Amino acid sequence: MIDPAGLPVAEIDWRGAVRIIRSIFPPIDLFEDIADPADWPLLLAAEQKTNPRLMEAVGNLDLVPPARRVAGPGASWLMAPFTHVSPDRPSRFSTGRFGVLYAGNTFPVALFETVYHHARFMAATRQPPGWTSQFREILIDVTATLHDLRGPERKAEAALIPDDYAESQALGLALRAAGSDGVVYPSVRCPAGQCVGLFYPDGAAHPVQGRHLDYHWDGERVDLYRDLSANVVYRIVQEDDEPGSNPAR
Question: Residue 154: phi, psi to the nearest 5?
């Protein structure tokens, strides 16, 4: 077990960090409204009388402390990862009991992280080759004090195992219970890249939608992505294909 007390903290100030999400998730009106988050429970109670599906869209608001909720344009992209959680959707630093907002410090980082998980899903469900789900790029600013797993002393090496989340989930649970705002760590899928895992939505701000993307599944891997904004297709060059890990046209 990694000792949370032995981990350093770092002040993270990233402009234009990148998160890539599925496009099927629409904005949530309650979060996008200019209403004070303190008034959300009253608004929900009133609107539920005419919109019984509202809670399904909003998710479990109780999972986010009132003081840490965010509202306004784009807030859906910051709030939804914390209100829509499930043990059926664990992640590196959570078993699904609480939400984590993940973002990369660059577009290639976010691309390679999401491509990996999308490929696992496509393989597990035995999907045929072809262009698959559409995604959207979300640009955010990250300003937070986070526990730092990037150090050369390798204190957190067990939390960065590519395909085993046991230690990292235990660490995430312990850090969050101790009041941590999240972690910053080396990208496991994109060498030299960095990621953050935020435990609360107010660690990010100024969400802006970027590009719309398509991923292509060739039956074994995600080999292409298409930038729908420019209608350009790029080949995804994996580290074991040739030197370098950046997506190339």
Answer: 60, 35
Q: Measured between alpha carbons, how far is 149 from 145 in angstroms, rounded to an integer?
A: 13
Q: How far is 172 from 159, CA to CA, in rounded Å?
A: 9
Query: For the segment 61-72, what is each residue's pLDDT rounded down to a tens digit?
Result: 889 999 999 988
| CA 203 to each of CA 16, 67, 103: distance values in angstroms, whole numbers, following the listed order | 13, 12, 11
Average pLDDT over residues 129-155: 92
From CA 211, how far away is CA 110, in angstroms rounded?
Answer: 13
Instruction: Give this prediction's pTM.
Output: 0.87
Helix (H) / strand (E) element for 136: namely strand 130-148
SS3 (DSSP) at 247: coil
Confidence at 118, pLDDT banded by 50, 70, 90: very high
Q: What phi, psi does 43 have (nearest 5°)?
A: -65, -40
Contact 100, 91 (CB under 8 A): yes
Structure tokens at 56: 């399904």
Helix (H, G, I), strand (E, B) or coil at 56: helix
pLDDT bracket for residue 133 (50, 70, 90): confident
CB 223 within 8 A of CB 236: yes
- The region, left, alpha or beta by phi > 0 then psi within -120 to 50, assigned to residue 105 is alpha
